[in-house]
Amino acid sequence: MAIATRPDVRPANPDFSSGPCAKRPGYSLDALAGALLGRSHRAKQPKARLLEVIDRSRALLGIPADWRLGIVPASDTGAVEMALWSLLGARGVDVVAFESFGAGWATDIARQLKLPDARLLDAPYGKLPDLSAIDFNHDVVFTWNGTTSGVRVPNGDWIAADRAGLTICDATSAAFAMDLAWDKLDVVTWSWQKALGGEAAHGMLALSPRAVERLETYTPPWPLPKIFRLTAKGKLNEGIFKGETINTPSMLCVEDALDSLRWAESVGGLRGLIARCEANLAAIAAWVTRTDWIDFLAEDPPTRSCTSVCLKLTAPWVAALPSDAQWAVAKRIAALLETEGVAYDIAAHRDSPPGLRIWTGATIETSNVAALLPWLDWAYATATAEYAPAQAAE
């Protein structure tokens, strides 16, 4: 049983939100001093800054040289929608859903694009679907890491090397935190506001040569909004992948993104970023092992996310409550921590089962995770005394 003794040490940074995520350690607004404000993003210097974001991102992630990488509007959501609307319809599609964003892509494919040969392979929160059931003659749409479920695919081994269809991967909470199997992927998307703590509204779209070939040989039967158009006169719009964004980007956010990318390089690049994430996950895993009132939502350890750690309340008295009452307990824990200035925005996503969600991406210091854990025990004990006084007295 957790005890209601207020800990002495607070995390130095209470920002554990799963998006927008914490800024890099040591961040200050001074990092934006060189931003090219009031300039056209089409001018030589601003365009060079946009291209620098692309080049540094490519190098950090180890994206193959023959892939295209571009900055697109509307964050990761815009990047995914651009891919779905531009590429799907040439063959059947399998949609893998094990959290709310994957379910959202399935809804768009079924109800907006109305693709007749679409299959949904889903699983409840905490589990992965049967990945062996995927038909790789189809295009495949999936999230690498379920931000709202804390479940990730453990690797890319399940993806057929000789696939006929394209694999379209929403990797927004996996990029810069996990090894992506580039040889098994064809479209990869992410946003600036996740793993490196950038500011919102900008997405990244990476296309394999197979994806480019689809774009240049297939025309969808539906009209494409301007911000989704990746081709002109049957050819790829190469400017998008050289810093010529489709709509006006924020040069302030561009400068911020460059700062986060330079920081990522300074901590060891991708290997360093992954190590930081895994250390954060390990700290929480050790605490969960010795704690009797909480557990990971992800049931299989290899599928547990190292960025969006989702936890469920397992105490019998909580489990016996109806769902809305369980939510009340979880939200009370989160509210207590926010009031104390210890952790912000850690209640589970609204589409998830009741519980907590702690962002542990690379911009989170493991020392701050360690400082948070006793506070979780304190908040749980305090909530128990309020909701189940008899249980708290035992």
Low-pLDDT residue spans: none
Mean pLDDT: 96
Domains, number: 2
State the distance separating the first and last CA atoms: 9 Å
Number of strands: 14
For the record, the CATH architecture of the largest domain stands as 3-Layer(aba) Sandwich
What oligomeric state best describes the polypeptide chains here?
A: single chain
Q: Largest beta sheet, briefly?
A: 7 strands, mixed
Please report the first level of CATH classification, the CATH class of the largest domain.
Answer: Alpha Beta
- The side-by-side strand order for the widest beta sheet comes to 1-9-8-7-4-2-3
Structural class: alpha/beta
Please provide a brief summary of the model.
It contains ten helices and 14 strands.
Could you please describe the fold and organization of this structure?
The protein is α/β, with parallel strands linked by helices. The chain has 2 domains: 29-265, 3-Layer(aba) Sandwich (Aspartate Aminotransferase, domain 2); 268-393, Aspartate Aminotransferase, domain 1 (Alpha-Beta Complex), CATH 3.90.1150.10. It has 10 helices and 14 strands. The protein has a 7-stranded mixed beta sheet with strand order 1-9-8-7-4-2-3, with helices on both faces. A 3-stranded antiparallel beta sheet has the order 12-13-14. Helix 1 runs parallel beside helix 5 (251-266), helix 6 runs parallel beside helix 9 (366-387) and helix 8 packs across helix 9 (366-387). The mean pLDDT is 96.
